[in-house]
Write a structure and sequence with these properties.
This protein is α/β, with parallel strands linked by helices and 536 residues long. The protein is built from 19 helices and 18 strands. The strands form five sheets. Strands 4-3-2-7-12-18-17 form a seven-stranded mixed beta sheet, sandwiched between helices. Strands 1, 8, 9, 10 and 11 form a five-stranded antiparallel beta sheet that branches. A two-stranded antiparallel sheet has the order 5-6. The two termini are 51 Å apart.
């Protein structure tokens, strides 16, 4: 136990980790923050919501459905259920890139219904209110449900009203769990010489009078542990979990073991829901091979407003193996995140399409490789040609984060682009915007895209994006000035005057806008500035 514990306020002591107050504090953080947890950058989500990763999941889903195609009922939907949908971006990217594959001959006529879930009803309401989701909701392609991974139960769809419970699904199901299993209850055991000891935790904080309803309390907690020998072989009283824990006790020596009890129960819930016909896709930080579990120290937490731990994917794979299923992991080391696919219902030899998709989309050209390349490319952004920069953006799947990194270089190159390159630029900008889901972040992607197109003399397209910026962020002097300048360049003096007047009402000191207004009032072009305003 920590020597500094005497100066701290004890919140609880001697509790099994999975039953700790820690997880209640975690839930409180997300209940209060909701979408702001991601839009304000408190909880990292870029890697787990990337278009490249969504594309890999789409390929795996299509492969799994092709393996099952002889048994699929086209009259009923195939449900793809995302746990802890967070910002909504993974599902957004998944649908953007996957729906077209269902029009191909092998799966033509099959209906996919994507279900975003979260334990917080408030978070679900915010996601369901996203304007970008409305067309898919109206088409019956997208729905939402409250689902608590800590207490799995039937899902009641927000819009369709269907209740997804065991026996209700006609077709196999796909479940996506990205950066979820690291944030729900786990336990820690110490294994030595065939003896199992359980970590009992003490939770404390430096605050003298802590408020358990304060969402920021979680970031202040300190966790200490003592170990108690486990005498009863039925630690959980659940045969599947107890058998797996006993395996580790007998196979490992002198190591701390993270045991993902909540994740294992979650898999069991969806196994029953899908009638043993399930593909679970998950990406996170963690361990996939048994040798990585040996000789480990006490697991720690990553604190980013919320908390997260590593995930013992090896345990999830062993559980699926005991159920007669198949686990797919990358054979090589993955540095950014571990990606696994767990399949139930078909023997391994009948999962040819799924295995091929995993090999192509994860092993050969996987998201982890992409993130490694991205880090290297970032060092060379300033030296890229226009063709190279646009190629990388296309390769990324239209990643807005990469666009923002390349923005200074593209702005420098834009004035010298030939017409063919400018047309390619327009197509890439369109891809970036189509793949971008606004969630209220401070960065204004639409404005930056518009500014780049205006600099490349693609004025109508730039005007469309400045208009999108105004729609998302409200009146802004720099944006309105750029709108006015676009209208002027298109020979539209009246809307130009209207926009510049609005800009000056917001910022009377905007000198370029004042020049433009005077020139338009005087019906002369001599004083009209020709450069877009770059500052917000």
């Amino acid at each position: 136990m920590s020597a500094s514990l005497a100066s701290l306020t004890i919140l609880e002591e001697g509790r099994r980790l999975s039953a700790s107050l820690l997880w209640k504090l975690q839930r409180r953080f997300f209940e209060v923050r909701r979408l702001r947890a991601w839009s304000e950058g408190v909880v990292p989500h870029y890697v787990s919501n990337h278009p490249f990763l969504a594309r890999a999941y789409g390929r795996l889903t299509v492969g799994f459905l092709r393996d099952w195609r002889a048994a699929l009922d086209p009259r009923e939907p195939v449900y793809c259920i995302e746990l802890g949908a967070g910002s909504g971006r993974l599902g957004f990217h998944f649908l953007r890139q996957t729906l077209g594959a269902l029009a191909l001959p092998a799966l033509r006529g099959l209906r996919l219904k994507y279900v975003m879930t979260d334990f917080s009803a408030g978070q679900i309401d915010e996601l369901a209110g996203q304007p970008a989701f409305r067309p898919w909701i109206d088409e019956g392609v997208l729905d939402f449900a409250v689902f608590d991974a800590e207490a799995p139960d039937a899902l009641r769809l927000l819009h369709g009203g269907e209740v997804l419970a065991p026996g209700a699904l006609i077709n196999p199901a796909v479940v996506i769990a990205n950066y979820v299993f690291d944030s729900i209850p786990q336990d820690v055991f110490w294994i030595e010489n065939g003896q199992l000891s359980e970590a009992l935790v003490t939770l404390s904080t430096g605050r003298a009078a802590p408020d358990l309803d304060d969402p920021d309390l979680l970031a202040t907690v300190q966790l200490d542990a003592i170990y108690a020998p486990v005498e009863d072989s039925a630690v959980y009283g659940e045969p599947a979990l107890d058998r797996l824990l006993a395996e580790y006790r007998d196979r490992l020596a002198s190591t701390h073991l993270l045991f993902p009890c909540a994740a294992l129960r979650c898999i069991e819930h969806f196994r029953q829901l899908a009638g043993d016909r399930l593909l679970l896709l998950s990406a996170d930080k963690g361990f996939v091979h048994e040798e990585a579990l040996a000789g480990r120290g006490l697991p720690g937490f990553a604190i980013h407003g919320s908390i997260s731990m590593q995930v013992n994917y090896h345990a999830l794979a062993r559980h699926v193996f005991h159920l007669g299923g198949t686990a797919l992991h990358a054979r090589r080391r993955q540095s950014s995140l571990r990606i696994c696919a767990l399949a139930l219902g078909l023997p391994a030899e009948e999962l040819a399409e799924t295995r091929h998709a995993f090999g192509e989309a994860v092993e050969v050209q996987g998201p982890d490789d992409f993130f490694a390349l991205k880090k290297g490319m970032e060092q060379a952004y300033g030296q890229l040609t226009a063709g190279q920069a646009l190629a990388f953006l296309r390769f990324s799947g239209g990643d807005a984060n990469i666009f923002l990194g390349l923005f200074p270089r593209l702005m420098a190159l834009a004035p010298e682009m030939d017409e063919e390159t400018r047309s390619e630029l327009c197509a890439v900008v369109r891809q970036v915007w189509e793949m971008f889901l606004p969630i209220g972040e401070e960065r204004d992607v639409a404005f930056q895209l518009g500014l780049l197109l205006a600099t490349a003399e693609k004025i109508p397209e730039a005007l469309d994006l400045f208009t999108e910026s105004l729609h998302l962020y409200g009146p802004d002097a720099a944006t309105l000035y750029n709108v006015a300048l676009c209208h002027y360049r298109l020979g539209r003096p009246e809307p130009a005057l209207e926009a510049v007047a609005q800009a000056l009402e917001i910022q009377p000191s905007h000198s370029a806008a004042r020049q433009l207004q005077l020139a338009l009032d005087a019906e002369t072009c001599r004083l009209i500035p020709t450069e877009q305003a770059r500052d917000r």
